[in-house]
Write a structure and sequence with these properties.
By secondary structure, the protein is α/β, with parallel strands linked by helices. The chain has 2 domains: about 5-55 and about 385-425, Urease, subunit C, domain 1, CATH 2.30.40; about 55-375, Alpha-Beta Barrel (TIM Barrel), CATH 3.20.20.140. It is built from 12 helices and 21 strands. It has helices at about 80-85, 105-115, 135-145, 165-180, 190-200, 210-215, 215-235, 245-255, 270, 295-310, 350-355, 365-375, and strands at about 5, 10-15, 15-20, 20-25, 30-35, 45-50, 55, 60-65, 70, 70-75, 90-100, 125-130, 150-155, 180-185, 240, 260-265, 315, 395-405, 425-435, 435-440, 445. Strands 8-11-12-13-14-15-16-17 form an 8-stranded parallel beta sheet. A 7-stranded mixed beta sheet has the order 3-2-7-18-19-20-21. α7 runs parallel beside α8. The chain binds N-(aminocarbonyl)-beta-alanine (URP) and zinc ion (2 copies). One zinc ion (ZN) binds near residues 186, 241 and 242. One zinc ion (ZN) binds near residues 62, 64, 318 and 320.
């Protein structure tokens, strides 16, 4: 078994930062050692992290590689997407397998496993999208949980595609409560949104900015409230995905103040991209079409505060890239046909690090939001999201000072534009180690497809949600 010493750096975990060397033995972390205390040895490779941070590998629990949507597929394959993730300091993704409508959940899992297994550059797991909730499908949930698929996404949006009504949602939540699964919710009132979309199109308003205009933030707040109520009736943990709106955040905060097992993630696009981008010339606005939509600056501010107060627990990407050519173009003249989703898996660690640079969050909180909290919530901790002895040796050597510019010319995602074109960020990934193998060395990819393994996840085991009482924050 090969041994590796990452030496000279400052180790940052969710609980603090201190100078230490990290000894890796084979695929696992063996020990954190006093700096400079390990003698030279022929069987020990060394990675110099002097002046750098050493953090647990990032965990992005919301990606969509090769996902069918609106008659096309998201542009990153499991290989190109996981390679880009590695470039950005992410060493585990949890992607979404989809139950086909009218089919079984197992069928969906098998199809996604066939796409991913043997093709990923980093480790991967799956959530399951239940697109057609029925009693036979709910029976399958028990077996899926046993096989390490311990979270299920439901949609209050997209009627006729992924949408579940409140009764189906409640039944799925009851099943989650029985099995220890987490329900992930796309919380937008899709029935009301579809009325607004039809009215806009009938009035001849087909331009991309109407995507945002027909998905007001109050309809995200309303759906979030309803999801929280239904999860309370069922007694299951709830995780609200891609939260974008201050109204939705207020609902999550109130539930958490009451001590409820309610969690939410946001994504970099909701922290950095202003809704005015959807009003760009010609089809430019289509670059930014995702659901929920990117919103006004006041929402970004509220979300940054939520990251600081722990009302928001995770930052994931909802990476779902579609090229402008042949894909986003499908929605020329009809915004409802623009495939929904943005590229971002490569930039999450850097973009959230800007919160440290701007004094919005601490370095340990950066690690918690991007690695440790997602690991805990989704049954990966302490194997992932920690540097404890025995954990998988997933490590990132991060240069907190290096300034670079995000751009389509520099990124590694298989998509023909950058949603962050020209954005200057402080902090850059230098070296990435995945289960003891160097996969990124000084910014160059050294990994291979097939290195990444499926990671079965444990059921939900509860998280601390300190009840603070009304107005306690
Ligand atoms: O626009 C988005 N978010 N596309 C991906 C699918 C989803 O709802 O997460
Ligand atoms: Zn969604
Ligand atoms: Zn998504």
């Amino acid at each position: 078994m090969s041994r590796l010493l990452v030496e000279g750096g400052t180790v940052v975990t969710a609980s603090g930062a201190a100078p230490a060397d990290v000894l890796v033995d084979g695929e696992q972390v063996a020990a954190l050692l006093a700096p400079g205390s390990t003698p030279e040895s022929a069987d020990l490779a060394r990675v110099d992290a002097t002046g750098k941070l050493v953090v647990p590998g990032g965990i992005d629990v919301h990606t969509h590689m090769e996902m069918p949507f609106g008659g096309t597929f998201s542009a990153d394959t499991f290989f190109t997407g996981t390679r880009a993730a590695a470039h950005g300091g992410t060493t585990t993704i949890v992607d979404f397998a989809i139950q086909p409508r009218g089919g079984s959940a197992r069928e969906g899992l098998d199809a996604w496993m066939a796409r991913a297994e043997g093709h990923c550059a980093i480790d991967f797991g799956f959530h399951m999208i239940l697109s057609d909730v029925s009693e036979p499908v709910l029976k399958e949930v028990h077996g899926l949980v046993d096989d390490g698929v311990t979270s299920f996404k439901l949609f209050m949006a997209y009627p006729g595609v992924f949408y579940s009504d409140d009764g189906k949602i409640l039944r799925a939540m009851q099943t989650a409560a029985e099995t220890g699964a987490v329900v992930m919710m796309h919380a937008e009132n899709g029935i009301a949104i579809d009325v607004l979309v039809a009215q806009a199109l009938a009035a001849g308003k087909g331009e991309p900015k109407m995507h945002g205009g027909t998905r007001p933030s109050v309809l995200e707040g309303e759906a979030t409230h309803r999801a929280i109520v239904l999860a309370g009736v069922a007694g299951c943990p709830l995780y609200v995905v891609h939260l974008s709106a201050m109204e939705a955040l207020a609902e999550v905060a109130a539930a958490r103040d009451a001590g409820r097992q309610v969690f939410a993630e946001t994504c970099p696009q909701y922290l950095f991209l202003d809704e005015s981008l959807m009003a760009g010339p010609d089809l430019e606005g289509a670059k930014y079409v995702c659901s929920p939509p990117i919103r006004a600056r006041a929402h970004h501010e509220a979300l940054w505060r939520g990251l600081g107060t722990d009302d928001l627990s995770v930052v994931s990407t909802d990476h779902c890239p579609f090229c402008m050519k042949d894909q986003k173009e499908l929605g020329r003249g009809d915004f409802s046909k623009i495939p929904n989703g943005l590229p971002g898996v490569e930039h999450r660690m850097d973009l959230v690090h800007q919160g440290v640079v701007r004094n919005r969050i601490s370095l340990p909180r950066w690690v918690e939001l991007t690695s440790t909290a997602p690991a805990r919530l989704f049954g990966l901790y302490p194997k992932k999201g920690s540097l404890l002895p025995g954990a998988d040796a997933d490590l990132v050597v991060y240069d907190p000072q290096r300034v670079h510019t995000l751009s389509v010319a520099a990124h590694h995602m298989a998509v023909d534009y950058s949603a962050y074109e020209g954005t200057e960020v402080t902090g850059a990934v230098e070296t990435v180690i995945s289960r003891g193998e160097v996969v990124i060395e000084h910014g160059a990819f050294k990994g291979r497809d097939g290195h990444g393994r499926f990671v079965p996840r444990a059921p939900f085991s509860g998280m601390d949600v300190p009840a603070r009482g009304a107005g306690g924050r």
